[in-house]
Amino acid sequence: MSSPVDSMFSELNQRYQKKLRVSAVDVDIFANCVTRVEQLEELQHLVYQLRRSKETVNTLESTHHAFCRVFLKFRQTDRLLHILSDRIGFGIFADLFSYNMLLDHLIDEKNWRAAARVAALMMAQEDCGNGISQRLALYSVHKYLREENRSEWFESEELERLAKEDELYPNACTDRAVITTDDNDEEVQYIRVPYLRNKWFDDHFDIRDANHLCGKTLYFFSKQFDDIVGRSQQIIGLILYEKWDKCLKLLTSFQKLKQNVVKDVVKTVDESIEKLTDESTHKQILLDIKKVLDVMDNDSQIVDKDLDELVSQKLSEIKELEIKDTEIMPQIFKEWEKDRELALNKQMEDLLKEERRKQLDDKKSEMQEKHRIMYFFENFAKHEMDFVAAEQKIAELKSKTVVDEDYIPPEIR
């Protein structure tokens, strides 16, 4: 038996196929009404189509949350991660609460690779979230780096897709909607133009190296903690990110301020030095970092504490932070309901306005036809002149037609 949600998808999909307008609020309602895992494919399709229409600029905030929540509900985390990674293609940007739920779910499943990738997405959006997000993200990346048989950051299919994009579009990416305005038209117009990719490496969205992504993410979130965990993870993150100068400068400031770091920092530096060859240009600065660590060790600034245990203790602080989130969530849901209601009212007003405009146009056409019939004989002379002009035009067109006298039509058998 067909459900109202199935009927809604069929109607919206037909409108997309006919190049008709589908509003962002319609997609939002569908996202909030999904009740079966089979409907996830339909939701993904609608979001994909919405991203390619001018309505994408009106996407409601509740759409992003509902999309993430329903995929998480049916444990489709791999598909969700793929969609979140393709921001240009699908335009889904998880909100703070969605990120928290997703990270919590992946940590429970001990899926460290996926959890670390979610943290990297937050870093790419330059959104450090709240205290819960920061602790979950920091813990996720830390556990992924500590994994013995660490799984690959990108899956083989993803690597192939990225390689193909880099090969086919060295200086261009997916089309992007750009706003243009017409002085004679009140409505804002949208056109699609090539979305140009930077000709240089931006050291942010273009990062493909797993260690660099983990390092930058670790550094980004650990800056939020002014303690031994934050300081230690900042240094480890910068080493993985291979920002040696920045690492040396930061570590020197810790040394001067008599601030402690854990012994794992020394271990990470030693491992990095071992990997470098004698000809490496970075070896000297790593040795300078090592010297600063030796000075800190002599001043008892290197603490022999288990970093894994210290980071795990950060998760225990989440219980106190959850109270504020649970108080804010109902308020945000009410705001989203108001936004949806306003969008629906505006859509209804636009539909009524369009219907009235159509009625006026039909009435105008009808009156013009009646006027033409009523004053036909009064305008008879004009009609005769139009008729003569039309005959002359037809004769002129016929005279320009080239006829091949030797043309022999084909035989029909």
TrEMBL record:
<keyword id="KW-0175">Coiled coil</keyword>
<dbReference type="Pfam" id="PF10037">
    <property type="entry name" value="MRP-S27"/>
</dbReference>
<feature type="coiled-coil region">
    <location>
        <begin position="338"/>
        <end position="400"/>
    </location>
</feature>
<dbReference type="GO" id="GO:0005739">
    <property type="term" value="C:mitochondrion"/>
</dbReference>
<dbReference type="InterPro" id="IPR019266">
    <property type="entry name" value="Ribosomal_mS27"/>
</dbReference>
<dbReference type="InterPro" id="IPR034913">
    <property type="entry name" value="mS27/PTCD2"/>
</dbReference>
<protein>
    <submittedName>
        <fullName>Uncharacterized protein</fullName>
    </submittedName>
</protein>
